[in-house]
Design goal:
Number of strands of chain B: 21
Number of helices of chain A: 24
Strand content of chain B: 25-35%
CATH superfamily of the largest domain in chain B: P-loop containing nucleotide triphosphate hydrolases
Structural class of chain A: mainly alpha
CATH topology of the largest domain in chain B: Rossmann fold
CATH topology of one domain in chain A: MetI-like fold
Largest sheet of chain A: none
Oligomer: heterodimer
Number of strands of chain A: 0
Distance between the termini of chain B: 48 Å
Structural class of chain B: alpha+beta
Radius of gyration of chain B: 25 Å
Number of domains of chain B: 2
CATH class of one domain in chain A: Mainly Alpha
Helix content of chain B: 10-25%
Order of helices and strands of chain B: EEEHEEEEHHHEHEHEEHHEEEEEEEEEE
Number of helices of chain B: 8
Largest interface: A-B, 29 and 31 residues
Chain lengths: 540, 362
Amino acid sequence: MNLPRAESALAATSSGIVALLVLPPLAAVALAGAGAGFAPIREPGVVANTLLFGVAATAASLAVGGSLALALAPGVPGRATLERLTVMPLYLTPLLTAMGWNWLASPKSGLINLILHAVFGPWATINVISPTGVILVSALAMAPLPFLLISDALRGLDPSLIEAARVHGGSRRLVFCRITAPLLLPAALASALLLGVQTIGMFSVPAVLGLPAGFNVATTEIFQLLENYPPRIADATAWGMLLLAISIALTVAQSALLGRRSFVTITGKTSRPAASKPMAGRARALLAMAYIALATVLPLAALLWAAISLFVPADLKLMQFTSQHFSFVLFGYPKTWLAAGNSLLLGMLTASVVCGLGLAVSWVVLHGRGRGRSILDQLSMTPLSVPAMVFALGLLWVYVRVPLPIYGTILVLLIAYATHYLPFGVRTTNAALRQLHPELEEAARVAGASWSRAIGRITLPLVQPTMLAAWILLFVMAMQEVSSSILLYTSRSIVLSVAVFDLWENGNPSDVAALGFVQLAISFVVVTLVLVIRGRRALT
Amino acid sequence: MTTLAHVSGVRGAVSLDALSLSHGSVPAVRGVSFLAAPREVLTLLGPSGCGKTTTLRAIAGLETPQHGRIMIDGRAVYDASCRINLPPEQRGLSMVFQSYAIWPHMTVAENVAFGLRARGVGKARLHESVRRCLDLVGLGALADRPATRLSGGQQQRVALARSIAGDPGVILLDEPLSNLDAQLRLAMRTELRALQRRLGLTAIYVTHDQEEALALSDQVAVMREGTIEQIGTPQEIHASPCSRFVAEFMGVRNVIPCQVIPHGGGVLALLPDGTKLQARGPIPTGPVCVCFRPISVQIRTGPDGGRPAVVSAAAYLGDLMQYELQAGDLSICARSLPRDDLREGATVYWSVPPEACFLVSA
């Protein structure tokens, strides 16, 4: 096929970059692990914990996110606001949610327990430093993922499918079991896969709430193997290979399950306001508010409380407020500004690289004419089904051996972030480009514009609003990345989330809270600045 | 059909009494009343946004009205004054949706069986009913096919089979033919009418296609802005529209504002350009328009009694020709069998028989 030169250059370059990002780390983990196999894994208890955590947190998160998606139906009072608040944990990070819950419900000094002890006596204790705590807090932190996927599926559902079932004699409950739930199954399975990979690869919540309780999972095991001297990279890689194997098994299982029920949801007219009773609407809104309180408001409030109290008291009457924690992290703690600078730079670079690469890949996949487009698509979506920590392990292997002077710089982190968030960039730009009719571009070509001019003057301006929203979310997510940063950082390339965790391990708990707030504040300021400069509102 | 029990005389009767429904502050249905007798097809006809689909959905229980009453089989399923509002599944209706709403995760037979299962029909009877219904719509061979692997026409038949499976007295149809291509639409129209007669169903039918409404219905209710503008048999609606809106909607192309002068037994319509047309009564109150169909216009080349006009455009419609006639400011649309003597630019003489001219309120 005779492709225009600029077009084939774009296809070749983007394919090359994606292959270079995705394949070497995976190959490294597979090859390095292949020598010893799973032999270095000598803790069957940790394997069991990982699986228990993965299954339980996935199920709990799916239940919470799915219920919220179903509850926030059209007609629920304040629906738009509640939806926006429900996805807040995405911006908050599981690390801060976990720390917030630690201050809320650690057995001795948790705020909730202090109140419970004062009212009911010392027997009334909620202990979040436990396997159950790890599972539930993870589920709270990750519920926005299934919420978004299942809400999307609900929106795409032709409402007359449900109405037809009601008219033909189905009660609400029967219609839910026989029609709604089966139609949502593909979205639920996709959520389950995503959650499964995210939970077994999650580091922050098990590290904050699990380690003190002796609840060790694969990610915390990898972290400890590498943190102690001498780092046992081979053993850590075996664990990485285990995570990779579980991820692959999950992906295979999902496509096997979906393969047999491959139906396209028929999209019909936009949904009409459902005739739901006002009481039911209010109960639904309350459910969403309860989630928002547990997942966002309470942890944030606890964080703030910890950041401004002089010390965490055993008795609420001894509370004293101070700004010393903020002044310490801002002026006394040497890592703050270095980490903040690195995080800011990484956040912006990651967001820009991923948006650009995502746009290029999507364009090639959707509008290009070359062969191998579906391989490029698959390859760019691979990081979605592999835990970030596995990629980080692979990168460690590659860059420790390859004589490139980038190990120990933020460039390694940038590569890890770009790989990890690439699927997000591809999905978002894909959706944006899909809405553009190819004829818009073709009309420009017919009117005499060159290929690059058509892209620059027609396509890019039209996808710009979506790209801005994607850029902001990517920036915020990159600002908070923990799982791969914790393996790849050095004293020069430390980032804020690692600094927070570092302080958590070695410092004053109140200082951690203050630093967590500084991290949130920086994200907030940058996002606000970007929105003000671009003159656009809302991430919708 | 022995299985279709006609338990009582009221089975299948549907009546609406001053039904009103608003979406927020926007009124969608305003005081609609009608009575559909058992085994009758009543069509709600009107342009989009006239409230016809909302009325149908209110009967189904998919939308909640604010005022009025809905009776099915002599039983109130919605009554604002008695606070009765039965959920859709307790109204004993069935419905064919515009999008067909075929459940994509089920086979054809499972789609048809859903309502029977929901109402607790036993296995043996269920299989028997499903097979009978699929045979009735000519889909017996496709029972086990996944519902996603069907053409539009087949989906439409599945929707129909599903709606007659529960042996309902009343079937609601929301523009069921609008997604089919023209040829299939005509065939399905005939089939639908035959099936309805055969099963003795009462049907409430929603459409914006006046031809479909005339061909299918026993009663046509023309709706406009949430109210029924005129209700009657297809013949009544076609021959004597009560308003300019109904007349134009029923394909009367010549609707001309006029003044009325009583004249002997009939009426003289005085057109703005001074032309006088003899018309039949009655005379509506208020400002009026004189109406006549294009097919009623007689065109001659000689001036015996006709009024002069110039053929400004001629369009070939297949069986008929359509001529636009211009006489000063007055435009007349006429249709006739193709004629060689009526070329564009030719001067002709037109007239309308008094019995084909009628008056409507403007």
